[in-house]
Every structure is written in C-alpha cells, then in structure tokens.
Amino acid sequence: MAGSAPPTPYGAARRLVASIRPVPAGYTRRSGRHVGSGHARERKADLNQKELDTKKPDTKNPDTRTPEAKKSDAKESDTETPEATKPDTQKSDGNTRITILVALAANIVIAVAKAIGGLISGSPALLSEAAHSVADSVNEVFLLTALHRSRRPADRRHPFGYGKERYFWSLLAAVGIFVMGGCFSFYQGYNALVTDDGESPSGYTAGLIVLGVALVAEGSSLLRALHQLRKQKGSAKDPAVRTVVAEDATAVLGVLLAMAGMVLHLVTGEVVWEAGASFGIGLLLVYVAYRLGSEARVQLVGESVDPELRGRIASLLDAQPEIDNVAQLLTMRLGMDSALIAARIDLVPGLDSEEIELICVRIKRSVAGTWPEADHVFLDITEAPPETSRTDGT
Known about the structure:
The protein is mainly alpha-helical.
C-alpha cells in the first residue's frame, strides 16, 4: 500500500512472539487435540496451578541463578539420598560375614571329626555326614566370595553394580551341595548294601559321640543364622544367610538320621538301616540344593520387588497432583539394597518442558525418600489413551 513503511526484521519478530499463545488446559501439543476435561482433571489442574503459584520468586531475596544452574542443582539433589534414610548395609554385611565364618569354623572341625570317626567305625552314615560337612565348608567359602564381590562399585561395563553376584555364588553353592553332599551320600548307601563287612561296637560308640558333638555345634550355628534371618524382611533376605540356614538345618537333620541309622544297625545287626540313613541324607541334600538353586535362578533372571512395596510406590505416584495416569510400573531387584523402578506416566496438560523436568526430579526424590534402596528411578512421560485418563466426563 502506498505510503506504508517497509517491513523490518523487528516487526516480524514481534509478530512471531505475539502468535505464540499458552497451551489451553486439556490440550496436548503432541497430538494437537483436547484429551478430556472432567472434574478429576480440573481438580488436578487447580492443584497444579496452586503449587506453581507458590513457587514464585522471592522479591526480597531474588534467585540470581541461571535456569541451567537451577536444573543442574535439581539433578544433583536427585542423586543424593539422605544419610539418615540409607540402609546400614555395612553393618548387615558384617553380621552376615560373622554368621558365615561361625558356620565355616564349625563345619571344618565337624568334618574332620566325622571323617576320623567314619574311618574308625567304617560307618557309611558317618562318612556321608563327613562329606556333607566338607560340602558345607566349600559352599561357605563361595558365600564369603559373594559377599566381597557383590559390594564392588558400579562401572561402565556393569552400570547397575554387582549386587547379583550373591545370587550367582549361591547357585554355585547349591551345585556343590548336590554334587559333594548328595551324590556322595547315595554312593555310601549303595556301597554299604553291596559290601557288608560288619563293624565293631567300640567304633560305633566313638562315632555316636562324634555325632552328638556335631549336633550341638550345628544347632548353635543354626540358631545364630535364624536370628539374623528374622531381622531381614521379604524378598530382600540375604541369599548368603538363607544358604547358611539351609545348610545348618539339613546338617542337624542329617546328624539325626545318621544317629538313628547307627543305633538301629547296632541293635538289629542289619546294615540296611544305616544304608537307608545314607540314602535319606542324600535325598535331603538334593532337595535343599534344588530349592537354593531355584531361588538363585529367580533372582538372576530378574525378580520384581515384593507386591506390598510395589503397591506403595504406585500409590505414591498416583497421589502426585501432576500425574494424570500411571500407565505402567516395572520394578526389578538388582541386589540386596538396590532396585530399579521404571514408570510410564501421563502428566496433566498445560506444563512446559522446564516444569516437566523439575516435576520429574521432585517425583524421583519422593520415591527415593519413601524407599532409599530405589537408587535407579526412570520416568517415561507419555500420553495415555483418553479412555485410561482419570476423568469423570468426556
């Protein structure tokens, strides 16, 4: 038009800024459509707006930090867990190590005594128990190795740490119980049936005395392991302690079976009773090895946290005013005191990218504050389908 001034770059910039409008409530930038505006969504939007209003800058003491510095501080605080809420893992490991060392010392002494008594008396049941104690001693060395290696810090190759080392070495301990304990006991029972040479009563008396001492020692170790196991809760129970409990419990039952077989052999003169005791010890060890191996397999494959804890985390996420819907919640235990939490959530509309980032940081801190062992929390911000959003209307 005649007489009009030519357009300038500044005028174009002003028109571009003026064309940008806040996203209306109930509207998503990703799909360009409204997703619903029921009473539940409106209440959440009101709560969200009130919370954002309370975060206005203090005019008396303004925060002069740049937005990048604020985001950096928020991220750093997200990775820090208050020391008061962190589990005392070093103390727990110390107690576990003492429990294993007590069981190891008892098993070494008992294995030597059983072997000497078995060689003197020629009792297959006593020799089976000697092999049982040797297997337990080797397995406790495995457990001490697991205790040391599982505490190594995370690195580039293993970003989630080495917590599952405990389950691997527990699996090896189960294999050791099966091979060195169960198979040798079966062999001793079979050998007693096919070669009955007869044993001297004096040798059996010494063997029964050895078994009596072993019963006291194994029982004391079992009581300590049970005491520590009761202090632990749910699926977070230490596999090393559970293995010691299983070993000591089977050791006590094995000693009782061996004593019964030897006494019945002395009374009746039939070796079949003692051979049966050896077979019973072998079956007991095979069963324990199977149970320990199955538990280790579940943990190595990837087990979720216990349902009660998962429900508490889901309730905490659902109670956040900025979360419209929790589409999916996945958990996996990474070790004794470490777990991965991954949630796919849908936020209420009307939030910009900076607000979303700060909200995610706050939600992660809330989860870690509720359960300090949740040291790997991932939030996937997605748009839930309209039918899954929490609305009272369309």
